[in-house]
Amino acid sequence: MVKYSLIILLILGMTVSSEDSAELYYNNAMLAKTVGEREENFEKALSGYVLTYNKNRERGVRNGYLSFNIANCYMNLGQLGQSVLYYKEANKLLPENEKISGELKKALSKRVKAIDVQNDSIFNKLFFFHHLWSDQLKITILLVCAFLIAVILFLHIKLKLKYMKSLLLINILLYSIIFLSVLSKDFSRSNIGVIVNGCNIHIDAGENYALLNKELFNIGSTIRVLDLESNWYQVILNNGQIGYIHKEDLQLIL
Question: Superfamily for 190-252?
Fold first, then answer.
């Protein structure tokens, strides 16, 4: 038992130290006087942040601020596709953070002829709040709904008003929907990917297959991913066509 505890403490210590050193390199990069020194420090900061990110993933931990730091490093290193990927991930985890959403907008504005997924499905229209609202906001709404349900139930029992029953049912329905959203991690999983390298889409999984589109899908574009077959992602375009992109050119927003 002691042995396993020491191993866990060692892993946690390495994680903290790697993130702390990454923060130091990031600050050095911001103060650097030469381009070479700036890039070197951003690369070292990125390595530290990514190391912490991967360790967190192994433990099932997700940190929006860490994704934001990684995105900032990629942006300063001129890697637009990767920066869009991590800004979107940070924005997904912290949707109410104005600084993150602001940097995401800046990154998106730097893309050239990018194509984005059209989120016009019935589910996205009905359950727009699932990815838009943070868990903290949802929990706050749940508490308010619970309070209203208790008050309405009390008034319904005491006053016997007809419309109280309708209000009670509406609040219970709202509470149930948001409660399911909080509980379920895979509820309407987006499976959206970001193009990190400009690429073509093939009609099947392999370089030898014909191209589905003549023009390149430019860096920073987003696309809906259906499946992974060997080293190829199966994707669906906004017009309903299905094709394949090599996994080196596309990364999923986690």
Answer: SH3 Domains (2.30.30.40)
